[in-house]
Design a protein that fits this description.
With 288 residues, the chain is mainly α. The protein has ten helices and no strands. It folds into two domains: 129 residues, no CATH class; 158 residues, no CATH class.
Length: 288
Amino acid sequence: MIDFFQQHSLYYFTVIFIFGLCLGSFLNVVIYRLPIVLQRKWRAQCVDFLNLPASANEEALDVFNLCSPRSHCVHCKRTLPFFLNIPLLGFLVQRAKCRFCKKKISWRYPCVEFLASLLSLACAWQWGVSWTTLAALLFCLTLLALVFIDLDVLLLPDSLTLPLLWLGLFFSVFSLFISSQEAILGALLGYLVLWSIAKIFHYFAGVEGMGAGDFKLNAALGAWLGWQYLPWLLSLSAILALLVGGGLMLRKKLTLRSPIPFGPFLAMAGLIFFFWGKPLGTGVSVCW
């Protein structure tokens, strides 16, 4: 199969594109359901800690995870037939409206699927038919899920950031992207740098300016990209945050005290350097 794909690149990229759409469809499930699953878990832990009766946590009676219940309309709760779950195509067939209740389907669903397919194609183009492509896919699609979860609920779940960190360290053992030394230093410094910035900000401002999820995400990016990229990574993500935040403030959609998720900007900067960066050994430019 590998030899076939190497000889027929068109088939390879077509399969990767379709595979990316399917992964994007699953990412939509993760983005929507994972925060709800975590909130239910935390609520159950609070009920247990406070020694409240089981009836105090009514949601525990419903089975809700990444697999159950089946895909359904978020408005009317009707289960969708399999042909309406086909990535991108199902959205187009329904003309962006639920087949049953006729309410609008968010454009974010096809956007996530399309972005996932584009990132899949970018990985395939960069690393060809190899195991490195699969590793790169894990990195890119995990970041994509984290971006939209953080935008939705201002949360970077440990169930995504920590596996991303450990995978970066694991792949460094085989020098898939960087060496183990670079990955370990990247993870360590990535966490400590943002943690230090947040503590200094809290000392002078008296409020929390950044969550621990951002520290862990930066550590994960350091494990995949190496410690040399951290100054550039933080600089670019800060610039992106200032541009977007400033633009929203000018349009009066945000105020100075409005919370802005920093994770999406870290992820975007990480993806830019992941695809277009080069080794920094001698202090040369980090991008082509």
